[in-house]
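Quick illustration, no need to memorize.
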Amino acid sequence: MRIMNGTKRMLVVAALAGAAALAACNKAESPEKTASDVAQAQQEAAKDTAEARHDESHNVAEAQQDVLRAEESAERQDAESAYKVAVAKAEGDYKVAIEKCEALSGKQQKACKDEADAAQRTAKAEAEAHKAVAR
């Protein structure tokens, strides 16, 4: 029985100590302590906000650079594709012109082929020029 009474006494003491501790938690702080805590919380919030804005600015700048690089890459690919199409067209036009020249003979055929050669060179040079400008 005495052991039970000792245990009960310890439980009562522990409960009272816990209640006293909880009562201290609800105790109002002094106005100076409250003002200090508020000022510190405001400084921390301002610092966190400034860091978040800095991070946001950095992320936006990186995203803009990524977009710029992607646009430049797409422009280079477009220029290369346009160049290949122009060269293929020039070669196709040349083959058609040469076939038409085959219907001619002598000086007319030679002049026709020379004209086809010149047209092909001009078309390829224009394709090269457009490709160079796009870079």
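The mean pLDDT is 86.
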